[in-house]
Design the sequence.
DNA sequence: ATAACTGTGTGAAAGGTTGCACAATCTAGT
DNA sequence: ACTAGATTGTGCAACCTTTCACACAGTTAT
């Protein structure tokens, strides 16, 4: 007997749902019918109880003593994440990274329909990348009136990010995947996720040098490690 | 009088250090000499106390009543993150994403020296990307004996990731930035950071549709939002 | 000197997330 | 039917992270 109502869903849970979905797709391709939370732990490194709790935010999907129907769970999670229908997405910034993202298979796999690419560089405007022509960012408001994209991928230089983001939001974009290393100041209703290679590299760099003396052979499985010994101490 | 010794540093702290460093570089270019934790909050959206606590893991860097010397703090953080010297980094996977990363300016800015690119696709081996020639991954062990890279960027398809990661680790790589959507099972001593656009997009997608009815104009500043109302409830 | 500010470093509180442990529930075999 | 075995959904405790709040330390002005 479920009772979820207006409880709030942790953001990490949403991220993990995407991981579950990936595993379910693999299982489906292997013609597996049923899966248990323990199986999922085995595949993802995410604790079985965590998996069950993540799902419990949205209802009850499993049968005690049996597990979860792969096909059913897949549909349910897709519905939760709203990727059961194709979603229009726009890309702004057709530089290195932007162009690479156009071909990224993960987008279509997750029903993200890249419908337009924008840039402000006259050298790039009009160019064809994959199956899309790069358009002038100045035309964004007009074009998006037709496209109605609510999700945008922002792959412009840091200096331009805030300005461009405001243009997007003015044209009804509600969610931004931001690759620029800057803080975007936007209305609270707009959701921003920052992808920062910098930060990840910092973590790696720190660890590499601090692990200098350790030596053991355990397996690691979790998606994120938690903390490490500091090494430097300066004043 | 500091007393940090073998306390453990939270991973989020390391990520934020990279952000502070970015802001400090901007401040230096604007010829600002001194900065307070409140200034940093203004620039980054990260709570001032958080900033001070993050630094406190490594020592004392500020003067009460004055703030922090921009130049000094910059050096200190760079030293903590071990990016005060150039670090050799290798890239595996010269596909779309991999190629884009070769040109990514953030790498050099953070003293990451991309010294070699590998792939297993014969069509790509030998090709020049920017200033590097793509080498056969089979030669990795040999080549890295000379290069001595400890950090690797893994931008190969999911199916190849585990296999390649093991090759890297066998050749003394200790930290991997993994762009493949798979769980890497590696010795615990190896640090893995996963970058998953999928997960970020899932969060965006979920939010876009759930925000359907809201309407308010507050500013958002933090780097991460925390939770949201669920909308779906299925069985 | 002293008073009035400003801003650091940190102990303690608040808040959020993860993992354990177990009752409840379903299946299958006898 | 009944028992044994499997596996879910969840209250609770442990853990981790963030934020508050304040003592203490420099700085400036009088």
Sequence:
């Amino acid at each position: 007997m479920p009772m979820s109502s207006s409880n709030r869903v942790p953001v990490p849970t949403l991220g993990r749902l995407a991981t579950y979905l990936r595993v379910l797709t693999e299982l489906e391709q292997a013609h597996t019918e049923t899966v248990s939370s323990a199986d999922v732990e085995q595949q993802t490194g995410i604790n079985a109880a965590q998996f069950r709790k993540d799902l419990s935010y949205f209802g009850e999907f499993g049968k005690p003593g049996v597990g979860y129907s792969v096909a059913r769970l897949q549909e349910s999670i897709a519905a939760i994440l709203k990727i059961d229908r194709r979603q229009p997405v726009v890309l702004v910034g057709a530089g290195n990274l932007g162009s690479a993202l156009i071909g990224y298979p993960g987008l279509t796999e997750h029903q993200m329909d890249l419908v337009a690419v924008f840039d402000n560089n006259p050298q790039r405007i009009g160019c064809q990348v994959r199956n899309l022509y790069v358009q002038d960012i100045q035309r964004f408001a007009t074009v998006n009136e037709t496209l109605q994209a609510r999700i945008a991928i922002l792959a412009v230089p840091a200096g331009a990010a805030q300005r461009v983001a405001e243009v997007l939001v003015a044209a009804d974009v509600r969610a931004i995947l931001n690759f620029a290393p800057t803080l975007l100041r936007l209305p609270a209703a707009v959701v921003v996720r920052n992808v920062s290679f910098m930060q990840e590299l910092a973590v790696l760099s720190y660890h590499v040098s601090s692990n200098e003396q350790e030596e053991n052979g355990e397996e690691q499985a979790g998606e994120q490690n938690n903390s490490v010994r500091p090494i430097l101490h300066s004043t």
Q: What stands out?
A: Chain A has a mean pLDDT of 88. Chain A touches chain B through 97 residues (CB under 8 Å).
